[in-house]
Amino acid sequence: MRSGIGLRHGHVRQILDRRPAVAFLEVHSENYMSAGGPRRRALFDLRRDYPVSLHGVGLSLGSAEGLSEHHLGRLHGLIEDYQPFLVSEHLAWSVTAGHYYNDLLPLPYSEESLAAVCRNVDRAQQRLRRPILVENPSSYLAFAQSAIPEPEFLAELVRRSGCGLLLDVNNLYVSAMNLGFAPETYLAALPSDAVGEIHLAGHAVRAVEGHSLLIDDHGSRVCDAVWALYRRTLQHIGERPALIEWDTDLPSLEVLLDEAASADAIREAERLAGAA
After folding, report:
1. Interatomic CA distance for residues 62 and 45, integer angstroms
2. Chain-centre distance of CA 74, in angstroms?
3. Pairwise CA distance, residues 154 & 147, whole Å
4. Contact at 8 Å (CB) between 75 and 30?
5. Which DSSP letter does residue 210 get?
6. Among 192, 204, 262, which Cα is nearest to 231's?
7. In the CATH scheme, what is the homologous superfamily, with its name and number, of domain 4-275?
8. 125 vs 15, 55, 131, 138, 260, CA distance in Å?
9. What is the spatial distance between Cα 230 and Cα 222, in angstroms, rounded to a whole number?
């Protein structure tokens, strides 16, 4: 199975014309919640040739206030229209008191927040009539109130709600470097069978008060260290649908396809090594 790519507006015309050999296309759900228009027509056209994955950024699963029924309804309508093979969201919050923030904000890993996320995931899956995948975040700080390690938090979320996981390997690397933990230990603590998709992306490095801080900006090629972690991930959990994300400083379609080809080559090499 080839890797997928994130479908961004700057590449839509080329993909419509060329129909490149990629496994699937992933879109941000919120970009397609309008009632019609050329963007939705293009996705209907592409849906005939490619499986589609919906990746949300605005459901706010970490919100203590619960989920917006209006947003859930619009997402349900999108699912009915496009019949995606995967639906995913982030372990974050972005809404409070009716205000939407243009950020995926972190939450402390406590029993209280775990209960809130489980309620929200249960409600989402009930309304959407399907399980969803929850993505691990990129982290830049750790809350003093976080009594539960992140992989254990995710494992318990899976156990209680029946959701799956979207393992973002770049996010895992960024968090590990920023917070000083071993990504292999994190991987070992995840319920491997629950991982339904893998994301791969680039990140930026910034100097902050004499220290290097990795920023998950999806604005460059996947670095060698993340490719190496992807290999270790495949060795640990096996093959999964993999996606190349690129959201800022969008490159040519050829560059995006080249990144997908690199992911394909690594996956094939690991498959052959496992069969030897």
Report:
1. 34
2. 20
3. 13
4. no
5. T
6. 262
7. Divalent-metal-dependent TIM barrel enzymes (3.20.20.150)
8. 31, 14, 5, 24, 30
9. 10
- Which residues on adjacent β-strands are paired with residue 212? 207
Per the listing, tokens 């080839």 go with 2
Strands 195-200 and 211-215: unpaired
DSSP E strand stretches across 131-235: 133-135, 164-168, 195-200, 204-208, 211-215
- Are the beta carbons of 86 and 130 closer than 8 angstroms? no
Name residues whose C-beta falls within 8 Å of residue 15's C-beta, 6 or more positions apart in sequence. 7, 25, 46, 253
Phi first, then psi: what are they for 252, rounded to 5°?
-65, 160
- Going by the DSSP 8-state scheme, the letter that residue 138 receives in this structure is P
Angle between helices 38-47 and 69-82 (to 10 degrees): 50
- Residue with the two structure tokens 């409600």: 123
pLDDT in tens, the chain (276 residues): 689 999 999 999 999 999 999 999 999 999 999 878 999 999 999 999 999 999 999 999 999 999 999 999 999 999 999 999 999 999 998 877 766 766 788 899 999 999 999 999 999 999 999 999 999 999 998 898 899 999 999 999 999 999 999 999 999 999 999 999 999 999 999 999 999 999 999 999 998 877 889 999 999 999 999 999 999 999 999 999 999 999 999 999 999 999 999 999 999 999 989 876
Using alpha carbons, select from 203, 132, 192 the residue that is nearest to residue 167.
192
- Compute CA 274 distance to the chain's CA centroid, rounded to the nearest angstrom: 26
